[in-house]
């Protein structure tokens, strides 16, 4: 079954769904009339609603399951879904996202995370200076802007959903929190797949945070021990708005990685840590600097060499 | 208003060399535009419209959020250079407001807004060139941009303009023809053949209307085939690019 | 301020009665409220009522210089005022609401762009003097279907209006007041009437003609048809809303054709009645 995946012409991005043994099932079912992995368009009939259940990207009219978005048909047992090829980020609990504060509200922040609604970060879901877990006081509420201000970037995890579908985030881990020392690259969320770890360090001294919402943070590498520190980690550093000193080679490495991501995204190539590493090596081998990556020919050459054809 | 231009000559040709039922060239460009979630540029002959769709996203105005569905916001702007005579139309122009309201109410029942409560979908329509069939181009462009943005639609909306010269029905009018001939715009949902939009502003006998109305409905199916071809090409390219994504190494395979 | 939306039981009640072809005010689905036309003492002053919906229309004529582009044509302008007086939905502040835009544009299409008036007949001296007709429409109360009511008021006002007779001798223009010479009716090409149909989310429910306020608010789309008694369509507009089959639209247009004939008869009758009373008054003076 594992092998079957690599032969499939199109790899579904959502591994949570893909991991279900649908490929095995397919053989058991007789009279299967769902053209799995084929492309469909809004208004096209997929199958009868008697035999199948409608999932995302479909609707039922006159006993037919009809696609409502352009994308590929997927099927898990009796559930038929259409995966839209380009869409907003659909959050799931446990996803790692990079977001930007848009609003400070009483006891909560609103965070733009490229989803259909702004995410919510509750004051009770952040780590407070001092490190100890404690109830949030009124004084904390008054100085919310000292933690996060409008425009601040942060990395967080999707904790839960509100009744209206908005996601709630948390940053209660030393890995999460405010982002500094780098730049943000935005790509279609489709291109960031679920990985073992979304924090990667490239050997060129660049840290990458691949947010599942398509926001990617490219920054200077911070040593593990520096980041975590002791129990009473420094409030000044985690909520600091000041960048560390960054030398020129790191700066150019950051730009180069950011441009690699942009080039790959423009060619609609899904991003993984290994792919990015390979692409970085390619640029080093070919002595390509950050700027020339954006030249069309160079970009095409990069994609041709690293992407599977 | 007798015009000096012959709308339909004895040989059955129109002023731009088309036949009665011939549509103009249709060009569709679905490539990504800046930060829009979906975009489309549609060209019907010399009429060109660019549409960008943003969203669904957090509603900017809290007063406009609806607890059970997404709010659709349409803004139309007409470039001053789009007409033969350079003319700046301001945003408060009633015709433009009406055009925006028409686009909004046409798409409200077509977009599955109930999937996105409290969100907002912004549709920005920029008219670049005008040579008749403005409403048709705006509707068609918006359909494609929405589909390109991955917003769930019940079906495409295909709009066509038709007119009647004396007793001869014609399709897809240019500006010259539009000024001279009673014209009808019809938007259909090709799957069911149902009509979501009809407008006509000139005097026309009921029977003539029926003829052109039915004809425009059929022409919608032709436009639909073009839409499908364009969107399928685009989707296939993107899916292909994703499939050709990373080389999957053995150890990576283990994760799944 | 938008009034609060109707409650769910209200909505259910309306929908279930409509499904049985019953309307809350006891009308048949395709029955129009009988228009009430009240004429003022001035010519061209009409108050039109459809149920509780009331619209006032008034026409006045002035002599002006024509526009250089059209020296042989008179000028017709339409001013529509929809104030919060009609309904709190219409606000005075800020941008015109969508409904307001649609009503204003529709009035313009029905009364001006469909060639109701023969503009050349409004010319007195080419390039120098023409009549400028100013039609003012005040929406007084909105109890649903204000569009039809406003169009009817506008067209009846134009039919009711008579302009003073003028005499041209060389470059000299003499205006004869009504006491000297009988004023002249406007030269009109045709008389369009507007009919609005409302559709409901459930396709089983038959569409209704002339929706009242609640029906209009709960409807899932409107279609307005303006046509004259000679079966000539002037404006058809269905801006979105529930998609309909082509045959259904054509069927409703046929309904509108019938209604237009009836309405035309009614309007002509009322105008004649009014004119008779006026004839006596003129003699009395």
UniProtKB/TrEMBL annotation, chain A:
The keyword Cytoplasm does not apply. InterPro entries: Exosome_cplx_N_dom, Exosome_RNA_bind1/RRP40/RRP4, KH_dom_type_1, KH_dom_type_1_sf, NA-bd_OB-fold, S1_RRP4. Pfam families: ECR1_N, KH_6, S1_RRP4. Residues 182-223 form the K Homology domain. Residues 88-159 form the RRP4 S1 domain. This is Ribosomal RNA-processing protein 4. It comes from Mycena chlorophos. The keyword Nucleus applies. One of its GO terms (cellular component) is nuclear exosome (RNase complex). Keywords: Exosome, Nucleus, RNA-binding, rRNA processing. It is found in: Nucleus. Belongs to the RRP4 family. Residues 39-76 form the Exosome complex component N-terminal domain. GO terms for molecular function: RNA binding. GO terms for biological process: CUT catabolic process; exonucleolytic trimming to generate mature 3'-end of 5.8S rRNA from tricistronic rRNA transcript (SSU-rRNA, 5.8S rRNA, LSU-rRNA); nuclear mRNA surveillance; nuclear polyadenylation-dependent rRNA catabolic process; poly(A)-dependent snoRNA 3'-end processing; TRAMP-dependent tRNA surveillance pathway; U4 snRNA 3'-end processing. SUPFAM superfamilies: Eukaryotic type KH-domain (KH-domain type I), Nucleic acid-binding proteins, Ribosomal L27 protein-like.
From TrEMBL, chain B:
Pfam families: RNase_PH, RNase_PH_C. Residues 22-152, 155-217 form the Exoribonuclease phosphorolytic domain. It comes from the Eukaryota. Belongs to the RNase PH family. This is Uncharacterized protein. It comes from Mycena chlorophos. The lineage of its organism: Eukaryota, Fungi, Dikarya, Basidiomycota, Agaricomycotina.
Automatic annotation (TrEMBL), chain C:
One of its GO terms (molecular function) is mRNA 3'-UTR AU-rich region binding. Keywords: Cytoplasm, Nucleus, RNA-binding. It comes from the Eukaryota. CDD domains: RNase_PH_RRP45. GO terms for cellular component: cytoplasmic exosome (RNase complex); nuclear exosome (RNase complex). One of its GO terms (biological process) is rRNA catabolic process. InterPro entries: ExoRNase_PH_dom1, ExoRNase_PH_dom2, ExoRNase_PH_dom2_sf, Exosome_comp_Rrp42_subfam, PNPase/RNase_PH_dom_sf, Ribosomal_Su5_D2-typ_SF, Rrp45. Signal peptide: none annotated. It holds the Pfam family RNase_PH_C. Residues 36-164, 191-258 form the Exoribonuclease phosphorolytic domain. Transmembrane segments: none annotated. It is found in: Cytoplasm; Nucleus. The keyword RNA-binding applies. Its main location: cytoplasm. Belongs to the RNase PH family. This is Exosome complex component rrp45.
